[in-house]
Amino acid sequence: MGKFEYSLGLNELKSKELRLWQALIGEFLGNLILNFFACGACTQDQDGTFKALAFGLAIFMAITIVGHLSGGHVNPAVTAGMLVAGRISFIRAIFYVVFQCLGSIAGTAAVRILIDQDYYNGLGHTSLATNITELQGLGIEFFLGLLLVLVVFGACDANKPDSRFTAPLAIGMAVTLGHLGTIRYTGASMNPARTVGTAFATDNWTSHWVYWAGPILGGVTAALLYTQVLEAKPAPKTNEAAEKYRTHADEREMRKLEGARDYA
Asked: Which residues lie in Basic and acidic residues bias regions (predicted)?
């Protein structure tokens, strides 16, 4: 029963520590930053490169700010991947997704309130381009989720400690690359919560399921692929007994040499 409670996450609800709530506030804030600044950038320019940089930088900043609290998921697709890989509990994953969506809604709502409607320009809402079917959009968003979550797992691999120093930048660059490659066709959501925020603000839910199913399926596939095939192998453990013997042998040799010098 104890193991089941741990996997489900009931122990986290019972804990008197504030770690879960701090993590949830972190996920809320991260998505608020993403939608406020990146979607705000979408109201100013139609250029895809400009938008790609805005979303990549927003993710870079968000993870840098809240990564130590929640792991810096800032995306239900990442959370789904972490859940499948057994890195977080089921209850924590559900709470993360709820707070990610709330943060995105708050961020886009703030943009909508603070600027005149003449500048809305769609508020950065994602939609399928003309002649792009829902299945095509699903495939594009699948690969976006796959790319992002592969980078997340690669950057946070415990057996590649050096990559952790560049993790926020690497993840931000993955978001930028995804936008550069596909923003014209689906808006390059790669984040269901991000699209919930703009859909709520614009009351436009057309083909909304694509922006949930695609990235999450891609994220789950990436998690399985990385943990089963691509994960770095742990460094081989040294034989402690042999190492200890070599150390003592070296010390004995040093004492012999010192004794020889004394006689000389």
From this structure: 240-264
8 A C-beta contact, residue 134 and residue 210: yes
Under a CB-based contact definition with an 8 Å cutoff, are residues 218 and 100 in contact? no
Residue written as tokens 């703030």?
Answer: 110
The upper half-sphere exposure of residue 50, i.e. CA atoms within 13 Å in the direction of its Cβ, equals: 11
Query: Number of structural domains, the chain?
Result: 1
Residue 13, classed as helix, strand or coil, is helix
Yes or no: say if 185 and 140 are a contact pair by the CB < 8 Å rule.
yes
Rg (CA), the chain: 24
pLDDT in tens, 164-180: 789 999 999 999 999 99
**Which residues lie below 8 Å from residue 60, measured CB to CB, with a gap of 6+?**
168, 169, 171, 172
Is the alpha carbon torsion for 52, 53, 58, 61 positive or negative? positive
Does residue 158 sit in helix, strand or coil?
coil
Whether residue 258 lies inside any domain: the answer is no
52 CB burial (10 A radius; 0-12, 13-18, 19+): buried
**Degrees to nearest 5, angle at CA 218 with 212 and 220:** 95
Of 167, 144, 166, which Cα lies nearest the Cα of 218? 144
Q: Structural domain of residue 204, as residue ranges?
A: 2-235
Its pTM stands at 0.85
Instruction: Tell me, yes or no, whether 244 lies in a domain.
Output: no
Integer Cα distance of 251 and 257 in angstroms: 10
Q: What is the pLDDT of residues 18-57, one digit of tens each?
A: 689 999 999 999 999 999 999 999 999 889 999 999 999 9
